[in-house]
Amino acid sequence: MAKILVIEDDTQFCQMLAQMLIQAGHEVETALNGVLGLERFRQSIPDLVITDIMMPEKDGIDVIVDIKRQNAEVRIIAISGGRRAITPQFNLDSAALIGAVQVLAKPFNREQLLAAIAAALE
Amino acid sequence: MTVNLDAQRLVTSLLTHTREGIVITDVEANIVEVNNAFGELTGYSRAEVIGRNPRFLQSGHHSPEFYVELWKTLLEQGYWQGELRNRRKDGRMLAERMSLAAITDAHGATTHYLGIFSCIAASENNERHLQQIAYHDALTGLPNRLLLLDRLENAVARADRQNSLLAACYLDLDGFKPVNDLLGHAAGDQLLTMVAERLHHCARASDTVARLGGDEFVVLLSGLTRVEECEPMIQRLLSVLAAPYRVSDQTCEVTASIGVALYPLDGSDADTLLRHADQAMYLAKQAGRNRHVLFDAEHDRQVRAHRQQLSRIEAALIAHEFCLYFQPKVDLYQGVVIGAEALVRWQHPEQGLLPPSAFLPVIENHLLMVKLDHWVFAETLNQMERWQMQGLPLAISINISATTLQQTGFPDWLAEQLAEHPRIPPRFIELEIVETAALDDLKHALQAIERCIQLGVSFALDDFGTGYSSLAYFRRFPVRTLKIDQSFVRDMLVDTEDMAIVESVVNLAQAFQRMVIAEGMETALHGAALLRLGCHCAQGYGIARPMPAEALPDWVRAFKRHPLWSASTEPETLPLLRVESEHRTLARQVDDFLQGVFTHTPVVGDERACRLGRWCTLQGRSLYGRLSLFQSIELLHHRFHALAQELIDLHELDSKLSTKRIPELYAVCDTLIEQLYRLQQELSTNLIRS
Questions:
Q1: How far is CA A117 from the centre of its chain?
Q2: What pLDDT, in 10s, does the model give residues B115-162?
Q3: Residue A99 to chain B, least CA–CA distance (Å)
Q4: What are the pLDDT digits (tens) for A62-97?
Q5: Does A85 sit within 8 Å of B495, measured CB to CB?
Q6: CB-based contact (8 Å) between A96 and chain B?
Q7: DSSP bridge pairs for B216
Q8: Where are the domains of chain B?
Q9: pLDDT tens digits, residue range B444-481?
Q10: Which of B15, B258, B363, B528 is a plausible cystine mate for B292, CB 3.0–4.6 Å?
Q11: Which of B252, B259, B223, B220 is CA-nearest to residue B238?
C-alpha cells in the first residue's frame, strides 16, 4: 500500500486512474495540473508520483524537476500519450533523463500500470 | 374672355408686334400661344414650345423654393412680378423681367396664365451683372460654389422638413487634362460647357448642378427616400457623360469619377457633406475611374482614429513613455546566456504596460517607426554601456524595421551612434530584420546591410519561415543568424508540419553556415526537441520572459541549465559529406570573391560556429581529443578558416597577392577533408574507440 499522487490534466483519465489505484488498495490524491500537483506534493509528501507530461501551464518535465529538487528520493512514473508531432517515447525518454524511474506510454492497461508501480516502489 | 372683333384685332397686333416676349398657358401651365418676340428672345420656335410646360426654360439658377413661392403668389394674388434667369435654346442665360397674371372667366375661375417678359440687358444693371458673376460660373452659367453652398443649406433644411435624404455628388472628369493639353484651352472650355449641358439635362428640375471650378462639378439630388434610389440617377450621369464629345472637329471621350455623400447619414452640415463627397470621389479615382463610390463613414472613422493614434504615439515618444524589456537568449547545450533581445514596451499612463502589437501596427511604414527604432537603438546602447560598467558585457539584438533600414543615411546614422558609444564593441550588436523588410528595394537594402556589416554589426533574419523564405532570397542576405519564427517552435511538439519546418530551417542554416536560434521556446521539453534537431540556441518563456533592464544582471547570474538539456544531445555522428561540401563551397566562394566574380564578401565565420567546429567542441574533443589525428584536424580546420579570412582581408590591400594565394586555401581544404575521412575510417573500424 502506497500513498500516490496523480497529476493529470485529462479529468476523465485522472478519475479512471485514481479508481484503478484505489481498487488496488493504494491511497490516492489527484491534481488536475502541474501547479496544483506541486502544491499537493508539498502538503503531503507521497511515496510515488504519477505525472502526465503534456500539460498546459506547467508541464510534467518541470513538475519532475521541481519535485526532485524538493525531494530527490521520491519515485516518479511518467505517463504520456504524445501528440501528433512527437512520439510518446520522446516525452518519456525526456522524463527518464531527468529522473522518472518508470515510464508508460498511453494507452496502457491495469496490469502494465500495476507492474510499473511495483517496479517503481521496489 | 369676352372681346369684340376690334379688340381681338388689337390683341393680335399686340401679340405680333410687341418687343416683349408673351407666353400664354392653359390652367395646367401648358403653353397654348407665344408671340414672335418669345422666339427671338428664347431661340425656340412656336412649334417647339406649344403644349410644353415652360419649366424647360429653367436654368437651374433658382431654387425649387423660389418657384414654390412664385406659384403661391400667383395662385393667391393672381399676379407675380419679378426677375427670372432662364436658359436659351443655345444654352446661354437669359435674364428677364417677368410679369405673370392669371386670366379668369366671368365666374372668377382661372382659365389661362399670361406671361409678359423682357430681356434685362447686362449694361442696364451693373449690380445685377456683378451678382451674376459672383454666384455663377462664367463659362457654363451654372451655380458656383457660393451659390451651391446656399442651395445645399436650403436642401438640407428641406430634407429635414420632409424627412428625406439628400445626395451630394462630387464629380471630377477623368481624362480632361489631355483634352486641354492636346486641343487647347478653348476646346477644353467647349468640352466643359458640353459637360455642363449634359448634366443640366440629365438632372431633374429639383436638382442642382454646380461647377466648382476646373473639371469639378457637384450635383445635388434631393427628395430621396432610400439610399439605393440615387444609384440609377448616378449611373445615368456616368453614362451620359461617357458618351463621346465632338470638340474642335475631334471626337474625344471623358468619363467622370463621382463621390457621393448622403445627408443626414454622412454629414450634418453642407461643408462636411461636400468634403466627404470629395473624399469618396478620390476613392472612385483610385478604384479605376468612371464609377461612383459612396462615402464610407466607417472607413473615415478608422482613418481619423488612426491619425489620432499616431499623434498619441508621437506624444508618448516625447513624454518618454516607452521603455525597454530584455529577453535572454541561451545556448541550451552549453548552458550559457549568449545575449538578449531588446523589446520595446509602452508604459501607457492609463492602459498600463502595452506590448508592441498594441502600437507597432499603427506606425508601420510611417516616419514614426523610424523615430521609435532610433530611440530603441540609442536607448539599448545606453543600457549596454550601463551593464558593461556593472561588469556584464552582453550581446544584444535590436529590431530594425524595413522603413528604418531603407532610410537613406541609415548606415551613417548607425556609424554615428556607434561612435558615441566607443565602449561597446560593434560585434555585440545584432540587428534583427524581418524577411519582408528588404523586399521593396532589395538592392538598396543589401547595400545598407553591407555597409552596416562593415561597421562591425551583424544581422539576423527575424520571424524566419513566415515571409518570403525563398532560398534565393535568403542566400543573397549576408545575415549571420536565422531566427525561427515562434509560431512554428511553439507548436512543434503538437504539429507535425511545424516540426518539419523547424527541422528544415535548422538544416538550411547549417548548410549555409548561419547561426540558428529558436524563438518561442515555451517549455524545457521544447528545448530538448530543439537540441535533437541540432538547434542549440533559443529564447522564449521556457527560458525567461522579457524583463526590465534592472532585472537582467541577476537573472544572468542565477541562470542554470535545465537538467533535461544537458541530457539531450545531438546525434553523435558527423555528417562528413555535408562538412566536406560546406568547406569546399566556402573555398570556392572565397575564390570567386577574390577573382571578382562574387561581389558579396563571403561569410567565413567562426570556425567554432560551423558544423565541424561544433562537432569538434561538443563531441570530438571529449571523445578523441587525445588522438593526434584529431588534434591535426582541429589545427587544419582552424587554419582553413583563418586563411580564408586572411585572404579576404588581404584582397583590399593587395588583390593580386590574394588571388595568387588561392591554391593554398584549396590545399588546406583538401588535406582537412582527407584527414577527416581518415579519422572516420579509423573510427568505423573501431581502431580507436576501444
A1: 10
A2: 999 887 644 556 666 677 778 888 898 999 889 988 998 899 899 999
A3: 10
A4: 999 999 989 988 999 999 886 656 777 778 878 887
A5: yes
A6: no
A7: B172, B213
A8: 5-131, 136-295, 322-567, 576-684
A9: 888 899 999 999 999 998 888 776 555 666 777 788 89
A10: B258
A11: B259
Contacts of residue B562 in chain A, CB cutoff 8 Å?
65
Q: Which of A59, A84, A98 sits opposite B495 (nearest CB)?
A: A84
3-class DSSP assignment, residue B250: strand
- Work out the mean pLDDT of chain B and round it to a whole number: 86
A65: chain B residues, CB-CB within 8 Å: 524, 562-564
- For residue B384, give the C-alpha cell: 549596454
Do B85 and B62 meet the contact criterion of CB atoms below 8 Å apart? yes
B571 confidence band (pLDDT: 50, 70, 90): very low
Residue with the larger pLDDT of the pair B572 and B578: B578
Q: How many CA atoms lie within 13 A of A53 on its CB side?
A: 32
* A84, A94, A99: residue with CB nearest B525: A94
Write the ipTM: 0.76
Residue B671: which residues within 8 A CB-CB, separation 6 or more? B636
Per-residue exposure over B165-189, b if at least 16 CB sit within 10 Å of its own CB, e if not = bbbbbbbbbbebeebbeebeeebbe
Asked: is B322-567 a CATH 3.20.20.450 domain? The reply is: yes
Task: Tell me if chain A has a CB within 8 Å of the CB of B529.
Answer: yes
Residues 6+ apart with CB under 8 A from B61: B85, B93, B136, B141, B143, B147
The per-residue pLDDT for B686 is: 47
Three-state secondary structure call for residue B189 = helix
- Reply yes or no on whether the pLDDT at B102 is more than 80: yes
- CB contacts of A83 in chain B (<8 Å) are 493-494
DSSP B602: P
Is A85 an 8 Å CB contact of chain B?
yes
Most confident of B370-384, B422-436, B627-641: B370-384
Q: Is A94 in CB contact (< 8 Å) with chain B?
A: yes
A residues 16-55 closer than 8 Å to B (CB): 53-54
Residue B135's pLDDT is: 85
Chain A interface mutation, best of B491, B493, B504, highest count of A Cβ atoms under 10 Å: B493
CATH label of the domain that carries residue A17: 3.40.50.2300
CA distance B245 to B215: 15
Q: What is the mean pLDDT of residues B45-68?
A: 88
Instruction: Evaluate whether the domain defined by B576-684 bears CATH number 1.10.10.
Output: no
Nearest Cα to Cα of residue B142 among B178, B175, B93, B95: B93
B21-26 and B31-34 beta bridge pairing: antiparallel
Q: State which residues form the domain around A114.
A: 3-121
Give the CATH number of domain B136-295. 3.30.70.270
- Whole-number pLDDT of residue B690: 36
pLDDT score for B124? 54
Class of domain B5-131: alpha beta
Q: Residue B292's closest CA among B148, B167, B179? A: B167
CA-based nearest distance A24→chain B, Å: 32
Q: Give me the mean pLDDT over the B302-328 stretch.
A: 93
